[in-house]
Structures are given as structure tokens and as C-alpha cells.
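User: Need the bound-state model for aspartic acid:
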Amino acid sequence: MSDIETVGRVIADDRPGVTRPGVLVIYTGGTIGSKPRDPDPDSPQVVVPWEALKAGTPEIARLPFAVDCFSIEPPLDSCNIGPVHWTQMANAIYANYDNYTGFVILHGTDTMVYTASALSFILRDLGKPVVLTGAQRSALVSTRNDATQNFLTALEIANPPFANIPVVPEVCIFFGGKLLRGNRTIKEDTSGYEAYVSPNLELLGEVGDRIVINEKNIRPLPERGRRLTLRSRPSTSVLPVFVYPGIQDNPEILRAQLETPGLKAAVVLSFGSGNIPTDEKFLDVFRSARERGILLADVSQCPRGPVELGIYETSEALLEIGFVAGADVTVEAAQCKLMTLFGQDGITCEEVEEEFQENLAGEHSFSVFVTRWGAGSGGELSGAGERARTRPVQLAGKWTPQRVDRAIVRLRGAQAVGPPAASEAKPLDQYKVQGDQPAVADPKGYVEFSVYLNLDAGATPDESSPNFAGRYKTWPLTRKSTMFVDISRAIRETSEAGDRVSITVFLHTAEAQLSWEAAEMAIFNRELAQ
Ligand code: ASP
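Assistant: Bound-state model below.
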């Protein structure tokens, strides 16, 4: 046992001759452990103690391995489960880690995905299965139930040598025949026996007459020598903000919420691929929150598909305000991730912003790593042939060239003035950037420039060299904007994480001007299914 505090009690399996190590069940309550309060079968359901649940599930007695139980006191409907209990569960796993093949958490279905998500971030370097399950109908209520199957199968998944299956070293949910990654899962059905789906990740396994684990989808075991550690108590100062048509008409409601003392972050549940109303007064509420050090996370209301900031101009305003995007993370996982990260002593908003965009426990399909060239990375070019070069800085993050989906240079606070021909063209308050375009003889108001990686100051630019990232065009920019330049190919072919890289921008168009205040690069790295 460790010195980590646990609240609750361990009830050992006292059947003679059971084999060890077995499985530790963490009993928290929920429908799986509920029955009507009164003899009237329609009276409200109440949660019973572990002993009563065990007695109502005689099949457990036929398992040859030990099924011990740690019960939280008292077991609860999952609507009443929260960070305090997440910590108790994590502590129970930590304190008993070496004594069991795996852990089954019996839990109410309502908040199961929150607990699973939170535990996936709390338990670092997990090397054993932690399987959450519950039921829509209890065995204590009806012989026609889903509780018994869910429970018995979860016990087998948590005991890989017994079931003769690969170890699933992650926090997962087994329910209705499906094994799902907990932090990718949503509850989509209030009563069906297949209540859960993971819209952005394939199943970890499927169970019919056999338990089939999809090995390519499961997380790798921790690196050799790394042992389970815990992130400390989750913070409750993270506010979800549900965006709806009309929210912009009364920004004061939002302002009051975002001015809650001690608030650390807001999970902004946006439309579609991450959009929110563009009303300036509404955006100002977020602007001032970010200036006060509140993290702003953009997570979609859509269950399927990603939010991507900083690729297209639609998200430019959010990026400028300082939002960070959660890729294809679920709302529940985003909320629990921020609660867990902000629970760590002394962590800063900037550190959490970095970790939020990084895949920590298989919770999203790509990570975003941002490198900033910082002070002095602006440029002011006028006339063909002028160039501006940043100093070299180390490219941030853990990414591999083969998995770089996109590398986008963002020129912040950019402005562009076109050549005289442009005065006849309608000036557009927007820009278009295209990669790898050939030079045009008559730019018709375009400002044309090219970008190189690691070109020595004064060196002759060579468009056939791998360091050439492409030629790009922009319309004149009449107000300061962020310009997005896709340099994916050059990054994939010439760079690795940790390399020191400079950026050189050349202006090609005569009598044009191009300026920007700072340069940064976002690398979008596809994560494996893990
Ligand atoms: N209200 C119950 C709970 O979440 C529902 C269930 O378990 O299905 O605890």
C-alpha cells in the first residue's frame, strides 16, 4: 500500500481456492447496483451496498479468479459523482495497482464518460485495463437485464491472462457488446442496451460469443520502467459555454459568467467546425476574459469531426483572441482534461494551452504544436526582391514528419498593399493564399511572395531546393489580419521536431508592400489511433 489516502473500504473475495492476482472492482453505484426502494416495483430506485449487488449476481461465484471490491462510501447515483470521487477511484487504483490484473469500475451510465475521461488524464503511464461498465437495467430488478453480461465481460477484459486476450492498457468503457475508449465516448441513448458510441474513433473491441480486441486501436503500453503516477485533484473552475443563435444579443450574461472569481477556463461549445457569432461586442467578452488569463477552448457541438483553428480565415478572429482548439475531442473529455490539467499545482494558463492541444491519452486524432519566432519576427518589405528573415528557433512539440498533416506559418498582424494596377481592382478585405503557384506575369493587384526555410542571410534563393516552401499570393489587406501560409511539404521534407528553423519571406511584386508583426508556425500532427 502507498501513503495515498483512499476513502472507502476493500472487501476481499473470501471464496476458497480463487486464483490471484484477480480483479479489483471499484463500486460506485448507479443503476447496476440499484433496486426499487419499496416493495412496490415502481418506487424510486436506490443504490444498494456491494454485498447486495454481489448476492444478486451469483454468476460471479463461478469465476475462478478473485473478485475483490473497493466500494466508495456510500455508493451513489452517478449524477452525484464528481472530482472528489474521481480522486478516490484513482487513489484506489494507485494503492492497489500491483495486486491485480486490472480494474473494473461499476458506475451509473449518466456520467460514466466524464469519469472515464477524467481518469484517463489522472492516471499517467497506465499499463493495465481500467474498464468502466454499468447497466440500463439491473439484475436486482429483472432477469431480463444487461447488467450481468456487462459486468462479467468487463471482469474478463480486466483479466487478460484469464480471457486470453491482449492487455488493453487504458481507461475504457465496456457496454452493450462494445469496448470503447472512455475519453472518446458519448452517451447517445437514455435507455438502449447499446447506449454509447465513439464517433471519432473505431471500437477498441467487440464482444459476441468471443472477446475480440482491435489491437491496432489500443494505446501502447507505457515505456519500460515508467510506473503509474497520478495528476493531482481536478479543479472545478472550468465553465462550459453553450453557444446558441442569439447568445451575441445579450453578452452581459456571458460576461457575468466569465467574471466568476477563480475561473480558470471556458469550454466554448461552438457550431460546426468551431465557429461562433462574430459580433464584436460578443467577441470582446472573450477578449477580455483571455486578457485576464482565462483559457478559452473551442470544442464543437457536433459529435463527429474536428475543430481546426488557424487554417482558414473563418477562425481568424478566434485565433487572434487566443482560443485554442480541441481537434475532435468530445465535450466531456475537453471539460475533464481542463479540470485535470488545472488541478496541478502551479500550472500556468500557457502550459495548459500547450497540453490541451496535445494528445495526452488518445483523446483526439491530431495534436497541434505551435512554435513562435517571437519578438523581432516581424517584417516590412516594399518592392520586388526584398526579404525578411527570422532568427532560427527550435520547432516545438512531439511530431514526426511522416505524420505532419499540415504545417501553417501564421503571419500575425499582416498588411499588404498591391501594385498600382490594384487600384482598379475592388480592394478586398480578405486574402487568398495558394500554395506552390507559378509566378504570374501580371499580378492584377496580387501581392506575390515566396517562403524559404533555413535560407542563410544573403544566400541566393533557389526554387528547386527542398527548403523552398512555395510561392503565395495575397490580396491587398486593408486591415491587420493573420495570413496563413501552408508550408507542409517543406516541413515534411526538411525538418524534424526539435530542429532549429528560420523562415525567410521574399517579396516578388514590384511596387507592392507586405508587412507583418510576428511569425509563428502551427504543426498539425496526425496521431495514430492511439
Ligand atoms: N441515474 C443513473 C446513474 O447514472 C442511471 C444509470 O446508471 O443508468 O447513476
